[in-house]
Amino acid sequence: MPVALAAAVTVTIPLTLPSSTPSAEAWTPMTSVQVDYGATAAPVRGKLLSFNDFHGALEPPVGSGGLVNGVPAGGVEYLATHVKRLRADATAGGETVITAGAGDLVGGTPLISAAFHDEPSIEVLSKLGLDLSSVGNHEFDEGVDELKRLQRGGCHPVDGCQDGDGFAGAKFKYLAANVVDKRSRLPILRPFEIKFVDGVPVAFIGMTLEGTPSIVNPAGIKSVEFLDEIKTANFYAGLLSLLGVKASVLLIHEGGQQNAPPTPQDPSSCANFAGPITDIVAGLRPEFGAVVSGHTHRFYSCALPNAAGVNTVVTSAGSNGTLVTDIGFTLDRKSRKFASVQARNVVAENGVKLPDGTYAKDAAGNFLRNPNLVDADAKVLVDKYRAAVAPLANRVVGDITANISRTADADGESPLGDVIADAQLSYTASAGAQIALMNPGGIRADLSFANSPGGEAPGQVTYGECFTVQPFNNLVVTQAFTGAQLKEVLEQQFVGFGGQTVQRILQVSAGLSYSYDTTRAAGDRVSGLSLNGAPIDPATTYKVTTNDFLANGGDGFTKLTAGTGRVTAPGFDVDALVALVGAGPVSPGPSNRFTKIA
Question: Which of 175, 231, 306, 463 is the most exposed place for a label (fewest CB within 10 A)?
Fold first, then answer.
């Protein structure tokens, strides 16, 4: 860690901490994961309420994203109710309560938030009482400067304050310990925050995954560097320990997942757990009594060994505000260290529960929402933005003939991936485009034939539905590549990215076909590459359309940065989908454009 970074940190901690008498009320352990670090005669009790990957879920998420083992959940009006109830119960019991997030609070958001550059999400989470959060990769979707604006406030530099009443910025603190300016080597936002629990200091250190550069648009993060998670966390924990802060919590946008069996999994369990967070925790100093994680959109509550061989409580609350993690902890007043930490996940239910334990639905099969679980403060803000965005969101733009799914088949191709690639090819015909490629991670929802959020007829598609599918406002660009360069691009699908081994199978437009064999050597896995039945000539130049996320090297496709003669289409990628649907009706793609041999 650079010396300049250490010199820049200023912490004011009283040498003599105030004393007080702990509450006489008994502290009841939760039936979930618990780690005891040692007995304490006078425990100081605290409560940490946390969630992650909120992704602008002002309204209840639809489909499987709004269910926790069959229970309808999520949406900020309901999340706020559950957070406030847990906070009130803990406060009444004499506990100090801190509310924290683990990144991706914004980005990849529904239109109700994204149309206003995610100011609605920041405002409603501030109203909910969020104290602090790590940054996540999606906090960088619109670049470093936009993240700083969300923290500090001010109108958007291009669109202004679209809701007409200004924007004050987040009342909570975003933490970015491992995101440093390339010149100064200092964090772009606060690296940590110290909270006092009945006089005992607890440090909250926040960071995103080191691999963020390969999963966000490189254009917006040229000025920063993303540092190693373990080294950064331990640097700050060690520094703060020297200054008298012996208890630390890591808020980190990286995670893991439970792996079946059993199925369904208990949101508060840790069945067959695996993921990048295990290696990170294994390298952490013992000051970290709790790690609040995210990124994988999975729920769990684990006890994982740290560098000292002592278990650390590690949690995640799924996504979209469907869960809130209830973390209880005690501190030893004398040593200022964690004495115990325990955690469970609480479902932020939003449905009407029937006597038989099921949840009520309307005639169309949609879950009914329980008005008794709506938080009044959150509702005021959400209603404001519902009304503002409704004319755009509910505008019918075209028709589809059936459900169009983003779920990939065994080859890695999806019906919706085909449709989006075709849409972008058609959208850039005037630029001479012959091929279009689409990253699967940019397809965020299915297109539903029956779903009618605005009351439209089955098969009719609204702008809001299209935006939910493609919510990132990427540009659509066309570049020239030789056939040899195109093959290099397709070979990069199988080499992983960001230090991971996850494959990213690009969705391709009609006319392009090929086979691939993952058992062959890297760089020699793609064969039979052809366009409209004619073999791709390595020396011939082809016009290829992608979104600018890919064109700038996103998802590890660095070979796409070699394109020449870049032409940018008007509008955004969602406009290409809207145009194709408007010329419909559109049917699901055939999912037959490339074949996996092995």
Answer: 231
